[in-house]
Amino acid sequence: MPTDLRRPQRTYTIRQLCLEFKCTPRALRFYEDKGLLTPARDGMNRVYSYKDRARLKLILQGKRVGLSLAEIGEILDLYDLDDGGAAQMAKSLRKFKERIVALESQREDIDRAINELKVGCNNLEQKLIATRPDLLPRAADYDQMLRQRLDGVEHVGAK
Amino acid sequence: MPTDLRRPQRTYTIRQLCLEFKCTPRALRFYEDKGLLTPARDGMNRVYSYKDRARLKLILQGKRVGLSLAEIGEILDLYDLDDGGAAQMAKSLRKFKERIVALESQREDIDRAINELKVGCNNLEQKLIATRPDLLPRAADYDQMLRQRLDGVEHVGAK
DNA sequence: CGTCTCCTTGACGTTAACGTAAGATGCCGC
DNA sequence: GCGGCATCTTACGTTAACGTCAAGGAGACG
User: What distance lies between CA B35 and its chain's CA centroid?
Assistant: First the structure.
């Protein structure tokens, strides 16, 4: 019978974790340098425990929502202190709310920029219609652009 | 009678432009290094023409909407070629639309992150309510946070 | 024993848009 | 002649999160 790939006693090589979480050995070693991970050793080789894997999962989650490694480190430190208890949760909650506020502010910036750009596009289109309508991008070109963009995304995602 | 500060024949020192557009001499020299500006000289000193001022204005507008200096440079190069004519407008239009697509994608990322964070906040709050409600941030603390944030913004804006 | 593959450490490179001295020049008024 | 101010050039520093070699060890295979 096959070993359960996730049972708590299990250990992982660096490559196994990298494959599972789509990251590179360099990244894991970097996190270790920063004190976010402290895997055991077998001779020279790193041996990641189930707990290390859980920490890595938290690290990557934090990254996805835009937390810096330093901020993630603060949370993980508390994780060590009280083993995922109340203090860590309270700190995470604060960090999360701060991040939400920051992200909402960023989104406002983006919306402003989009509006400014749309105004600019309209101006340019008006002028081009008046002077050189032949230079206006055509619907076909736009479709082409979108298709290229989607192909790119699929390629990255598939590979 | 005072000289019109913006009449086309006017020239500007580096400091005057910096004051007007709230940037630093270092930034203007940097743009010059990158080929975005090419002011005349009076001896060693830079002398910015009305056209230079217009270019700077475009540079800063481009920055506000998130264009890189390299991209802004591409547009400005065309600006030189046909003096603000059709080719430049067509290129700007393309760049603007590309930027809009990129910004909308960024906004989706942000929205996803915000949702993920809100889910996380809810989970954490539930657990804290059950175990350590004393650690929950209170409404008063939240007001305090907002006030500090607003003060910061006003301070920056006013100064 | 040679080769292969995975692992290690160490250390420099990358990117963008400037910041920050350090040291020199030049003009103004006194 | 000198202090003070604006300007100049040159050139290294900053930040984040790794990427990219380089050089070397350890175990497995045939």
Answer: 19
